[in-house]
Design goal:
6 helices, single chain, mainly alpha, Hydrophobic Seed Protein, lipid binding, signal
Length: 114
């Protein structure tokens, strides 16, 4: 009887591990995705490099639910506010330049809860 009980507990533990949601992304993940965009965002490059656009794609891929999109928006907003020399027009136009539509603009002033 004890063996059956142990087997049931092990199976339940394995099932629990299989159905847990994947770990959510962090703002550090978003920052790392945008680091290659800095030359474009501060105006020292006229176009974003491919690695920058790959980062924008990564951010879009990280956030699929409404809550995740709000979290990503907040992380992007925080990142934009860390650097005072970011050009607002470059930031807001980055998704278009990269051909990656986001459901929120990249801005220091965006309300991520709308």
């Amino acid at each position: 009887m004890m063996k059956v009980y142990v087997c049931v507990v092990v199976v339940l533990a394995m099932v629990q591990l299989m159905v847990q949601p994947s770990q959510a992304f962090t703002c550090t993940d978003v920052d790392k995705s945008l680091v290659q965009c800095m030359p474009y965002l501060v105006g020292s490059a006229s176009q974003p490099v491919p690695a920058c656009c790959d980062g924008v794609k990564q951010i879009k891929g990280m956030a699929t639910t409404t809550d995740e999109k709000r979290q990503a928006c907040s992380c992007v907003k925080d990142a934009a506010n860390k650097y005072q020399n970011i050009k607002e027009d470059a930031a807001s136009g980055l998704p278009t330049k990269c051909g990656v539509p986001l459901s929120y603009p990249i801005s220091k002033n965006i309300d991520c809860n709308t």
